Amino acid sequence: MATGLKTLIKLNSWGVDQKRRKLGEIMRLIDTLETQSKNLEDELVREQHAAAASPEEAAYTYGNYANAVILRRQRIASSIASAESEADGARDELAEAYRDLKKYETVQANRLAEEKKEEARKEQIGLDEIGLQGHVRQRTVR
Known about the structure:
It is a single chain. The protein is mainly α. 98% of the residues lie in helices and 0% in strands. The chain is built from 2 helices and no strands. It has helices spanning 2-53, 55-141. α1 (2-53) runs antiparallel to α2. It is rod-shaped and about 125 Å long. It starts with a helix and ends with a helix.
């Protein structure tokens, strides 16, 4: 039974690691999307300054650019929201897997403690027997 418990702990530990990696990947995706959003905003500011510097050229091109930026901003925001929702689900899965792992580890720790307690009890019985035999010998010698 102890071998099965060790296998179960290894399996669940592997599952926790997998879920942790998945959450890490999602968090990196969110960081990348947030960086893209910030870069888009920085680019928009630069384009606005350029448009202000030469309004004649901007009259032809800035409107289309602004519409494209709005669409990109919406897509990035939608992707971030989707990834954050996925991250919440991954966090829940990770928490559940971690709780299960802790249950198995606690059971194993309790079993080990019981085994040590039983070994100590048996050892004490053996020592008591040795002590009793020594006491009997001393009485018979007198």
